[in-house]
Specification:
Distance between the termini: 73 Å
Helix content: 10-25%
Number of helices: 3
Number of strands: 22
Structural class: alpha+beta
Strand order of the largest sheet: 2-1-11-10-7-8
Strand content: 25-35%
Radius of gyration: 28 Å
Largest sheet: 6 strands, antiparallel
Order of helices and strands: HEEEEEEEEEEEHEEEEEEEEEEEH
């Protein structure tokens, strides 16, 4: 789910020179080629749309029109429906665009130069969603080197890629991306960066095609205010089920006499039926 800040700042950024960003507010946006135009853009009702972007509080959904071909997300062909993340590259009819959230990117805190390494958390991982590491997960129990070097933890096998491109690590309880002097830097949610603090759900791209998403537990107090005199806590499903079972146990003694009474009444009725029925 996207937060309200990102919802207000979503845009489609075209790689075509001179084509302005296309804001994506909440609602449905039909995208195609308007008659007599080479550029891709919003088409009016009644015109043929190639795709539609649906933006709501749950996120961004890409719907491909029936019969349309040549729609790809991060290099994978989409025939019907796909849920998008900020930073995804979308190809429509040969034109590339990226889903970006500028305001969130500008507000991103910068890492401290001398941040201390935090205690390892096995729940914090970098998961590959595109490129040669698709499907693999890298825990951040130690700093991870990204590069072409043989000793790199996340090795990008490309002669044009830097041997030591960047390092991703946990520092002071935050996931930090640090550039190691690469020529092109990296992309976070579609924006070019050097050093950045990464948040859960952020998409990181190296070498244009090597895509990763940050997976980490959200803070228990994110987006919520404590009740008066109370504290915030994160409750697991097991805890909720345990509480439900406890409540059921507390109610069980009150239900037991009613069950016994019903059984006795039923037995009495059956006895009367047998007694008078046999006569």
């Amino acid at each position: 789910m996207l937060d309200s800040c990102r919802m207000e700042s979503l845009k489609l950024r075209f790689t075509t020179a001179g084509q302005p960003d296309l804001p994506l507010g909440i609602g449905m946006h039909a995208i195609g080629r308007a008659p007599g135009r080479d550029r891709m853009g919003v088409v009016a009702d009644g015109q043929q749309a190639i795709v539609r972007f649906c933006v709501d509080r749950r996120g961004v959904w890409l719907t491909v029109s029936e019969g349309a071909r040549g729609v790809h997300v991060n290099g994978r062909e989409i025939r019907r429906l796909a849920m998008l993340r900020i930073g995804d590259a979308v190809y429509i009819d040969g034109i590339e665009m990226r889903l970006v959230g500028e305001r969130a990117a500008l507000a991103r805190p910068q890492p401290e130069p001398a941040a201390a390494e935090a205690e390892a958390d096995p729940r914090v991982v970098l998961r590959g969603i595109g490129g040669q590491h698709h499907g693999r997960s890298f825990t951040l129990d130690r700093p991870r080197l990204v590069g072409r070097a043989r000793e790199a933890d996340i090795r990008i096998d490309d002669d044009a890629f830097a041997e030591r491109h960047a390092r991703i690590e946990l520092a002071d309880g935050r996931v930090v991306l640090r550039d190691l002097g690469s020529d092109e830097g990296s992309q976070v949610n579609g924006e070019a960066v050097r050093d950045a603090v990464l948040l859960p759900g952020d998409q990181v791209v190296f070498d244009a095609h090597q895509r990763f998403v940050v997976e980490a537990p959200m803070r228990a107090d994110a987006g919520r205010e404590p009740e008066a005199g109370g504290t915030l806590e994160t409750r697991t499903l097991a805890e909720q089920l345990s509480d439900d079972a406890s409540r059921e146990d507390r109610r069980a003694p009150w239900r037991l006499p009613w069950l016994l009474l019903a059984a006795l009444v039923l037995a009495g009725l059956l006895s009367l039926l047998l007694l008078y029925g046999s006569g």
